[in-house]
Write a structure and sequence with these properties.
The chain is an alpha+beta fold. It is built from five helices and 17 strands.
């Protein structure tokens, strides 16, 4: 049994079953933060994510795990548009790998984050995950391009902080798409984010130069 305490957003304790190889949450109101006696290893955290497939899971450097509900139908639809357009472009260019919202990026300090869409150059992909075995676990490096789509349940400040996290960890370009406020924010290293109100297109630059995303679906 893994020693843990669970806390709701209101700071109230929550009970759940965390048991060895079958680390699952049963009848637990979400979102919830799990504070463990020790950080989980990559293998243990991967097993936890697999046992709770369909939930959004991230962890911090102190070992705490935050489990959130999946996005609604419209958020899922827009995520698919974003990922599909990026994938079509990347396949045409042949210079990188595209990831969707089920990707987990785990850093050396054990922090785990999941982007809504990401692009990683072939060179960095092969360097980090050259062997097939390595590709079965978390991605150990920050993608060069990261996109986040704000869902209706997300606080704007939370998503903006997540974008700042990506940029601080090595992303070369970031897009935050906010259908709630009808705006997009462009993040670049060592610069203040640029805010665009209801742009018709988002134009790729840097690592994804040449990519163009039509935005009409995001503002509908």
């Amino acid at each position: 049994m893994t020693a843990a305490s669970l806390v709701s957003p209101a700071g109230e304790p929550v009970s759940a079953e965390l048991d060895g190889s079958d680390v699952t949450l049963r009848d637990v109101p979400l979102p919830v933060t799990i504070r463990l006696a020790r950080p989980l290893s990559d293998e243990e955290l991967f097993a936890f994510c697999a046992a709770n497939e369909g939930l959004e899971i991230e962890s911090d450097a102190d070992g705490s795990i935050t489990v959130m509900t999946p996005g609604g139908s419209d958020t899922s639809r827009l995520n698919q548009i974003l990922g599909a357009e990026l994938l079509v472009w990347a396949r045409k260019m042949g210079n990188g790998v595209v990831f969707g919202p089920d990707l987990g990026v785990r850093f050396a300090d054990t922090t785990l984050r999941a982007p809504d869409a990401a692009w990683l150059s072939n060179e960095r992909w092969k360097s980090a995950c050259g062997r097939a075995k390595k590709r079965k676990g978390f991605l150990p490096i920050c993608p060069e391009f990261v996109a986040e789509l704000r869902s209706p349940s997300d606080r704007a400040s939370k998503v903006e902080a997540k974008m700042e996290f990506w940029m601080a960890r090595g992303a070369h370009l970031g897009w935050l798409i906010d259908p709630e406020r009808k705006l997009a924010m462009i993040y670049r290293p060592d610069r203040e984010p640029e805010t665009l109100l209801r742009p018709e297109f988002l134009e790729g630059e840097g690592p994804i130069s040449g990519f163009r995303l039509a935005m009409q679906d995001f503002w509908a």
